[in-house]
Amino acid sequence: MPNIGVQRALSFVTVLALLVALFAVLAVRPVAAEMADLTATLTGDAEVPPVDTAATGSATVSIDTEAAADAQLCYDVTSTDLEGGAVIGAHIHEGAAGVIGPVVVTLQAVIDGDGTGADCATDAEIDFAASGDADIATLLTDIAANPANYYVNVHTDMNAGGEIRGQLEVAGGGGEATGMVMVMKHLCDASIQSEADFIEVEERSLDNPTTPAGVPSLGSTIETVLACPTIVQPGDDQTPDAIASGSRTFDFTVEDSEGTTQVLTEDTTFSGDNGFDTPLEDFACEDTVDGMEYDANRNGEIDGDVCLDFSAYGFAGVVEGEVTVDEIEAPPSARFGTVRLTPAPLSDDAAIGLEFSDGVITFDSSADEDTMVTLHVYNFVNVAGEETPTATPVASELPDAAVNPTGEFGSSSVAILFGIMALASIGFLGFRTVAVRRNR
Predict the structure, then answer these.
(1) Peptide bond into 50 cis (omega under 30)
(2) What global pTM score does this model have?
(3) What is the pLDDT, as a whole number, of residue 121?
(4) CB 216 within 8 A of CB 6
(5) Phi and psi at residue 94, in whole multiples of 5°?
(6) What's the DSSP call for residue 129?
(7) Domain spans of the chain?
(8) What does pLDDT average to over the chain?
(9) End-to-end CA distance of the chain, in Å?
(10) Are strands 253-255 and 433-439 parallel, antiparallel or unpaired?
(11) In b/e form, how buried is each residue of 376-415, taking b as 16+ CB within 10 angstroms?
């Protein structure tokens, strides 16, 4: 068996934490309205790490992209009781809650006003390149459509990283907060033909002496990914010796709550353009999980060059509420198999209702505070000469801290497996279409 696919399996705790942060980076940028009014409430608790300060603040941001050549962002920020001395910076950064991101807009009037000021940003104060956008209009369009991926903060002498911070949101709220869904696609080997077979694979980690005692879901996730490799786009740079080697072609769309359909055409995890200095796949290796080790290829050695190869896709612009993932026209050589969510201890996903049957997956993300949900979808190969098993509808609840790698899908095993990345294995071979619909 080739050697690379496992090393990454190990860093899953790290990977999962990174995945949360990666949502904003991988998310396909949705179409935005031409006008948008956004707000943010600024506190020290929202800073990363939190700052102990009595200071508070508020921000309003108005964006006009009706004419791309004249796209404009105006702001009004007020700060109260700042304790860190003189204001040395005020910005809009790209980054979801809990994530430190690059500066994309400098709020010069706030700096000049020692924490309070209003103006319209000049072109020189907007750094669209920092977020990987082609121009100012593209950046402002994304801020308007995807405000939860951006935050306002005010920096002071004693708190150079920021004294108060707040995520942007649509003015007035009303359930319009942006959510994110990540997708990861897998194709299992022919030995896995049922949910019971899948659970057996999850339980293999119990026989591996290097399974981390405190995080059994880590080993379970690794074992599952080894048996059900990730399917990636042709052209993606998979490591030659990856256990999850090879490529399959697939295509799918995402439909958000406003009916905007997006087609994913590239995978940023393999390009290295994912917000991190090191490509994400380099984190999932046998010896790279914060001191944790896992002998993924079971050769009796821990090898930092043995890594898992995986790929994920993220979509922004979906609102809290019911989400339906619909697998369309599965190829004749395979069928919809099963689904897993990332374990709560690894991803902070809240307990949400999950139902799936014959390629249709429904869950309600309202209970998930960070509005970011990650899910794996697995396809099973149809064995020649055998009758295709009939999928049985399953209704499942995800306990908030379920990490036991044994048991029925509706309990611990669901939370066990989501240790790798996000939503998705809806198809393989040939072009398959997956629609993620947000119903309200």
Answers:
(1) no
(2) 0.51
(3) 92
(4) no
(5) -90, 125
(6) G
(7) 7-28+177-439, 35-170
(8) 66
(9) 46
(10) parallel
(11) bbbbbbbeeeeeeeebeebebebeeebbbbebebbbbbbb
